[in-house]
Amino acid sequence: MALSYKARRRWSLIILLIGLPAYIIIAVNIVALIDRPSLWVELLVYIGLGFLWMIPLKKVFLGIGQADPGAPERGDGEGGAR
Predict the structure, then answer these.
(1) Helix, strand, coil abundance in the chain, percent, nearest 5
(2) Partner of 13 at 20 to 30 A CA spacing, among 6, 30, 53, 61?
(3) What are the Cα distances from residue 41, in Å, to 1, 30, 32, 45, 46?
(4) In this predicted structure, what is the pLDDT of residue 60?
(5) Rounded to whole angstroms, how far apart are CA atoms 14 and 54?
(6) CA-angle at 18, arms to 14 and 19, nearest 5°
(7) How many other CB atoms are found less than 10 A from the CB of residue 65?
(8) Are 45 and 31 in contact (CB under 8 A)?
(9) Which residues, 6+ apart, have CB-to-CB distance to 64 below 8 Å?
């Protein structure tokens, strides 16, 4: 079942405000368990983990920054944002 635009907006906000900070804390703790690698290896690990969280959540964030596709069109003739 596909999520509505409104539901995707709510879930994206929850993910960004709660899920992403939790993921960052978990990622830092996991890297801290490993013996300190070289700076470049550590940087590559953090970059990889930075992209890894986005892959399963791509569908939630797709199109969130655009106007609601199901909303009725404004017919006031101005066409601009208020």
Answers:
(1) 55, 0, 45
(2) 30
(3) 40, 14, 13, 6, 9
(4) 84
(5) 14
(6) 90
(7) 8
(8) yes
(9) 8, 9, 12
